[in-house]
Amino acid sequence: MANSAKFFDPKVLAKIGRLELRARMVVEGFISGLHKSPYHGYSVEFADHREYTPGDDPRHIDWKVLARADRVYIKRYEEETNLRSHVLLDSSESMRYGSGALSKYEYAATAAASLAYLLNRQQDAVGITLFDDEVRARVPATTGAGVLGDIATTMESTPPARKTALAPVWRRVAETIPRRGVIIILSDLFTASDDFGHALAGFCERHHEVVVLHILDEAELRFPFEGHTLFKGLEEWPDLLADPQALRRGYLEAIGRFLDRTERECAHRNVEYFRIHTGEALDGALTAVLAARSHRQRARSHRAWRRRR
């Protein structure tokens, strides 16, 4: 794992790990939120307790403990405590691009490692699938102590190199996941305009909870180029020597349409969408994702509780 350690940036992981103490509501809200939604209606076995927090489903309050100890606790169930998360990491050639310290792939891989670290510390099963126009490598979801090393080694040994084809690959991946869980996607999503929605459908039809982390390079969003520039083609596109001034307006309009379409598709399918660019500090970006998920999950739980009253 020596060569793979760069994906486990000590500074990033230290900050992510400290979230459990520094921002307990964020981390526990994120994890418990991930646990809740896929499993409504399942028959599950009681595992342990945790303290009640506003927005929790009151049906799971342990009234005997409340009567005995005058403290409000929530029952946790075996299905909750064994969340299965499946990380999908884009290893297509377009992910090689990077205008800063890290390419999109390096940034996304570090984010994937950080989330795997956090989930593993929560004793939840986590695995990873790397893809381009097919599945390139896979580590099955497990709670084992060695899974982080397996994930890092797999990411290190699968450099971005080929074209993207989301729909056929994601549908094949969905077919290999027998139980509902959480799908965390890290990709630049550069694919045909109608491919992304079809790709998501395979997971949504099986009632997985899907979280999309849309990873883009800062330059792809701002197009800061000056003077004649040779744009290197990726994924079989040709190189282009051009004046950026002549391209900027059309490019920014096109990228704007792409982002709007992608976000609308996620909203239509009830998929959580987060846009992150490589100029952002990774720990800050992931903290924002965790906080947003916590807020959304608690808001949904509170609305459901009010409807039942």
Q: Could you walk me through the main structural features you see in this protein, from its secondary elements to its overall organization?
A:
The protein has helices at about 10-20, 25-35, 65-70, 80, 105-120, 145-155, 165-175, 195-205, 220, 245-270, 280-309, and strands at about 45-50, 75, 85-90, 125-130, 135-140, 180-185, 210-215, 230, 240, 270-275. It has a single domain, classed as von Willebrand factor, type A domain (Rossmann fold, 3-Layer(aba) Sandwich), CATH 3.40.50. Helices cover about 45% and strands about 20% of the residues. It contains eleven helices and ten strands. The chain has about 300 residues and is an alpha/beta fold.
Summarize the entry for a quick read.
The chain has 309 residues and is an alpha/beta fold.
